[in-house]
Amino acid sequence: MKKKTAILLSAGTIFVSGNLYLALKDDSKALRSSYINKWAAVGKDNLTETLHASGVVTPEEEHQVYYNDEDGDFKGFLVKEGDKIDSGTPLYEYSSNNIDEDLARLKAEKSQLVTEANLIDDQIKQLNYLQSVSASTSSASTPVFGDGSSTRDDSNELMNLSLEKEIYDKQREKGRVEAEIEKYEDLIDSYEGTDELGKNSEVSGTVKQVNYELKNPIVTIISDKPKVEGKFSERDLKAVEEGMEVYVQSDLLKGKVEGTLTKIADYPEADPSVDAESHYPFEITLSEETEQQILKGSHVDVSVITDQVLNATTVPEKAIEKGKKNSYIYVLNEKGIVEKRKISKGLQLSGKTQLKKGAKPGELIVQKPENVQQPDNPFFSKLNTDSLKKKTFKEEGKRNIFKQIMVGFFK
Predict the structure, then answer these.
(1) Count H helices, E strands: the chain?
(2) Which one, out of 232, 243, 287, 314, has a CA that is 20 to 30 A from the CA of 35?
C-alpha cells in the first residue's frame, strides 16, 4: 500500500512539475496561447442606410384658369370650391360680344377640316388601287431558268410593304382630322341658339379656389395625385441626390409608401444668412401602385435610401482590429488555428460592417480581438459542461477520447 502510494505521488509530482516547466519556460506555448471564450459567425444581411426628414403631402399639380374680359361679359361660376371635376367640366359661363363672328370662324375652320378629310380619303382610295395592281402583277406567271432561279426580284414585295405603310399613315391622319371636326361640331352646337358660352376645364381634379372678385386666376384646380414636399439641411445635401428611392410613413398610412426623390432645389428656401443654416426644398413623387387614400396636408416621415447593400457579408464592428493602415479580423481556420486576416470594409451600419474581402458567411471569428495573444498560435476556451454527456462520449468513441486526452497532456 505504501509502495503504491509512493508511486502515485511520484507520478503526480512529475506531471505537475513537467507542466509547470512547459508553462513557464521561455517561449512557452502556454504563454502564447489565447483564452477566447466568445466567437461570432460571419453573417449575411441587407444593409440599408437612410436619411430621415419631415414632409407634408401636397397636390402634385396646380392648374390656374384665367378669364379675359375681352371675350365677353362674365355670367357666373358653374363650380364651387371642393368640387371634384373631370376634364371637360364647365367652370364658368360668359356671353360673347362677338358671337356671330366667332360662330362664322368656327364654321369656316370646320369646313376646311372637312375638305382636308375628303382629300385624304381620295388619297387612300388611290393607294388601295395601286396596291391591288401590284398584287395582281406579283401573282402573274414568272419564267424560271434551268437552274431553278427566277427572274422576279423582290421589288414587288417591297412596293407592297411601302403601300401598306402609306395607307396606314393616311388612315391615322384621317382619324385625327375627323376628331377635330367632331370637336368643332360640339363648339358650334354650344354657340347656336344662345348668346352664352362656357369655359371647360382642361384637367381633372378638385377645385381648390374660386375668385368671386374675378381676379386672375379666377379658378384654381389641384390634381388628385399627391406628392410630398419638405426641406433638407445643408448637411443633408452631402448624402442625397435626385433619383434616390424613398419611403414615406405616417400614422394615417398603412405601412410604407414608396416614392422617388425627384427634385432638390439648388437655392435655399429663405434668403441666405451667415448666422443661420440654409434649408433646401425637395419634392417626392409617390408610387402610382399605391391604392391608399393619402390625405393632402397631412405630415409624414420621409426616409431617403442613401446607400444599400443586399446580401452583404457582415461582421460585428467590435470584432475588427484597426491597424495604422489596414483593418483585420481573427478567423478560426480549417486547421483549428486563429488566423489573422486583412479585410476590406464596405458599408458600416448599426454596429455591423460589410466585408468586401476577408471572410465568408458562416466562418467563426473572435468577437474580442484584444483577447488574441498571438495569431497562428493555439488557443483555449471555457469548457462547455453541457456537452459532458454520456451520449457525447459514446459518439466520440474510446479511441478518439484517449487521443484527445494525450494531446491535452503533451501539448
Answers:
(1) 6, 21
(2) 314
Q: What is the pLDDT of residues 185-223, one digit of tens each?
A: 887 877 666 666 677 888 889 999 999 999 999 999 999
Residues in Cβ contact with 122 at an 8 Å cutoff, skipping those fewer than 6 apart: none
- What's the angle, vertex CA 20, arms to CA 336 and CA 410, rounded to 5? 40
How far CA 277 is from CA of 232, 271, 272, in Å, comes to: 10, 11, 8
Residues of the chain below pLDDT 50: none
Q: What is the pTM of this model?
A: 0.57
* Separation CA 209–CA 223 (nearest Å): 13
Instruction: List 233's β-bridge partners, or say none.
Output: 279
C-alpha span between 52 and 258 (Å, rounded): 14
Nearest Cα to Cα of residue 92 among 201, 186, 183, 192: 201
- Cα angle 327-330-333, degrees, rounded to a multiple of 5: 135
β-pairing, 205-210 vs 90-96, is unpaired
What number of residues does the chain have? 411
Q: What is the pLDDT, as a whole number, of residue 18? A: 64
Go through 206-217 and write b for each residue having 16 or more CB atoms within 10 A of its CB, e for each that does not.
bbbebeeeeeee
Sign of CA dihedral 167, 173, 174, 175: positive
Contact indicator for 329, 359 with CB cutoff of 8 Å: yes
